[in-house]
Amino acid sequence: MPIGDVYKVNREPVLVKTYKDGSTRWHSEACPKCGGTGYLHGYEHIDGARCWKCNATGRYPHEWTEPSDERIEKQRAKEKAKLIAQADEKNAYFMKSHGFNDDGKTYLVLGDTYSIKDDLKSLGAKFDYLMGWKLPKDTDKYPTVEIAIDEVTDKDENGWLIYKPNMDIEEVVKKKKQAYADSHKSEEEKDKNVKISDYLGNVGEKITVTAKLIKEYTYDTNYGYYGGTSTIYTFEDDNGNKILWTTSSMPYVNDKPIESGKTYTITGTVKEHKEYKGEKETVLTRCKLTAATNESLNYIVEETEDDAIMRREEWNKDAGYYERDGVYKPKVDVKTGAMILPKEIYDMWN
Ligand SMILES: [Zn+2]
Q: How far is the CA of 51 from the centre of ligand 1 (A)?
């Protein structure tokens, strides 16, 4: 049929009927493919662009319905209701296929899981690239952290479970792993605290101890015209013994202020032994700090200069020596010229 015939086609759609919901039924004589022209633009190289649907007549009677907004809305609501009705079933499938149990819990396996993946599979674990292997039931065989479904999923508008954004899930997993590490660290620390703090040295003795600075507490003092601050440094040695040193100066080791968590070799005089919250503490004074050496962590008792003088004086007194012009001389029997010795010294020497 020649293309010229298309001019005979009525291209205006005709309203057939209007439905109660406002939707409309239409009829058209014109071909929907070529718009009633019988000619397909851009297809000149195929059969001279003749429309194949209407055989280039431009005439192709057909009908259609244009839904009203009301009908569209109703249709959408119906589809939505269908999706909502499916939610329970779909969510159960989601949970099962992602390793969650009926209570909405899953147990993420920590550590290297590659070598144990076959065993994990046999235990019903499910893998995903974001979190890893997840067991529906906790096991004593491997370290795990519990994850609740609400922590990693949201529900879409139809109540279907969907994973939260990757970043949120990564954050949840990171926190869980950190909490796991912390709880295990604190168990180690608890073991460490089983060590009973004991006193070091005797009061007045000079001791050297290698210990870690574990706490600093700075407070205001009223000493001096302007006042100032003092800091209580608490150290702990490898045996759990606590060493306290209070100073108003800023202690430096190798030109750096001392830092918590670092280990130092401390030499100081034992000022006091005291107990605080059931822990024995050795209070030192006039301390000198150096970088920790690898030497024995046990303390070395040294005598202070004052102690040495006092001890010599005591010994001389006991030995019957007397001081004259800064020189100690033994007491002698005037008649015999023999040294007069206290009984205990005599016993020691004989
Ligand atoms: Zn056509």
A: 5
Interatomic CA distance for residues 71 and 29, integer angstroms: 26
Which domain covers residue 223, as residue numbers? Answer: 206-302
Contacts of residues 185-192 at CB distance under 8 Å and 24 or more positions apart, as own/partner, are 192/240
- What distance in angstroms lies between residue 24's CA and the mean position of ligand 1's atoms? 24
- pLDDT (tens, 9 = 90+) of the chain, 350 residues, equals 455 455 577 889 999 999 999 999 999 999 999 989 899 988 889 888 999 999 988 999 999 999 999 999 999 999 999 999 999 999 999 999 999 999 999 999 998 888 898 999 999 999 988 889 999 999 988 999 999 999 999 999 999 999 999 999 999 999 998 888 888 876 666 665 566 788 999 998 899 999 999 988 888 776 655 567 788 999 998 888 999 998 888 888 888 888 888 889 899 999 999 888 778 899 999 899 988 764 434 444 455 666 666 666 666 665 556 555 555 556 666 666 666 555 555 555 54
Q: How far is the CA of 47 from the centre of ligand 1 (A)?
A: 13
Contact 229, 216 (CB under 8 A): no
Is residue 14 assigned to a domain? yes
Distance 27 CA to ligand 1 centre (A): 16
Residue 199 in domain: no
Q: Which of 138, 160, 189 is the last residue of a domain?
A: 189
Separation between Cα atoms, residue 102 and residue 99, nearest integer Å: 10
Q: Which residues surround ligand 1, an ion (CB under 5 A)?
A: 31, 33-34, 51, 53-54
Q: Find where tokens 């929907």 sit.
A: 32
Task: Yes or no: say if 21 and 71 are a contact pair by the CB < 8 Å rule.
Answer: yes
From ligand 1's centre to the CA of 15, what distance in Å?
A: 21
Contact 266, 243 (CB under 8 A): yes
How many structural domains is the chain composed of?
4
Token duo for residue 256: 């750096």
Distance in Å, CA 104 to ligand 1 centroid = 58
The verdict on 8 and 49 lying in the same domain is: yes
- Alpha carbon of 348 to ligand 1 centroid (Å): 134
